[in-house]
């Protein structure tokens, strides 16, 4: 039975507190902890790289080999299907349908367990072939297989953690989601410094990678305890309640989430193609390009933080039947993303030494600077496309952002079919192609939403 409030109205009749609240104040209240939470998640990657760097080059190369599949798991469970879950929760709360929001929470658990299990089985069967295909050989391949075997056996834990955090973000509880991620990083840092052996201890690379994988899963296990505690904590409106599974809700989330997952997959493929194109010139060019695009580790938390806030606010207005207001909020938040990220990209594009000289050796820093001079001014377009992707999850209008991402990948991939590398003495034409594809992506998504999906 639904608990009644003092004025006689049921909890289910209470709309989302995000609807009608002052926009700037609400955006800051949600976006700031969202940015912090995303930066904390990026910090986990930095800590892992630091610890495995101590363990030796083989360990570092092995985790880099497995990283695209681990990143895909995060992009699906936190960004694609997780984002669809956040949008569904926000719309349910906006329409005062607390029963549906509770059902979405239970559905998220089912999706996480099934999705994580399917991905784990897939990588267990085909992972070794993929690692070999992207260049892992000898000890690196053995260590990568050892790491992936453990990680993807327990990948349902990662899926479940990310999906529960997505429910919290959809309800506007950004601080609780950030706290849960903080617990993962804290546990991994403590256990990692304590238990991951260094290169000179005599342990093989496979033993080191196995230890690192178990520690990562233990960290997400503690994160799960934290996130479930925060969901059950007093004051959180969404509850598990009954244990009935609503299959139509699962189907609705998966329809939107798998469409969004197409963008996640296209992003991974795009990254692999771009890296492969630059890697054909020299190791220094590959390292310099990699150093430059790591700037995205600074930009993505900003886009994701503002984007998570947009999912909650835009979804709440859409659920409340105020579609025009939802679209207005989406454009305002996207403009903020473009201004912030575009300014960072433009400033570092004009002054690449501020980033590159601090992180790379002379030749690598030079190639990094050349990359940023070309790509930096285009990061505003990247922010437009990705920011509108998040806003579209709130409005359930993902077709245009996903199509834009696919076309960007196709533009870059087409180079593999016709480009003769003897034509060029430098990678500059490839960098301009990547920049042009980035610009096309942002413009395509803006125009598609403005004149089609978001017409008012």
Could you explain how this protein is built, in words?
It is a single chain. With 456 residues, the protein is mainly α. It has 2 domains: 20-245, no CATH class; 247-456, no CATH class. It is 80% helix and 0% strand. It is built from 17 helices and no strands. The two termini are 39 Å apart. The relative contact order is 0.12. The model is unreliable at 1-13 (pLDDT under 50).
Briefly characterize the structure.
This protein has 456 residues and is mainly α. 80% of the residues lie in helices and 0% in strands.
The major pleated sheet works out as: none
Shape: globular
Computed structural class: mainly alpha
Topology as H/E string?
HHHHHHHHHHHHHHHHH
Counting DSSP E segments of at least 2 residues, the number of strands comes to 0
Q: Which band does the percent of strand residues land in?
A: under 5%
Mean pLDDT: 84
What is the topological layout?
Elements lengths: L22 H32 L2 H38 L3 H36 L4 H16 L1 H16 L3 H22 L9 H28 L14 H33 L3 H11 L2 H24 L3 H28 L2 H4 L5 H14 L3 H17 L3 H15 L1 H4 L9 H26 L3
Features:
456 residues; 17 helices; mainly alpha; 0% strand; 2 domains; globular
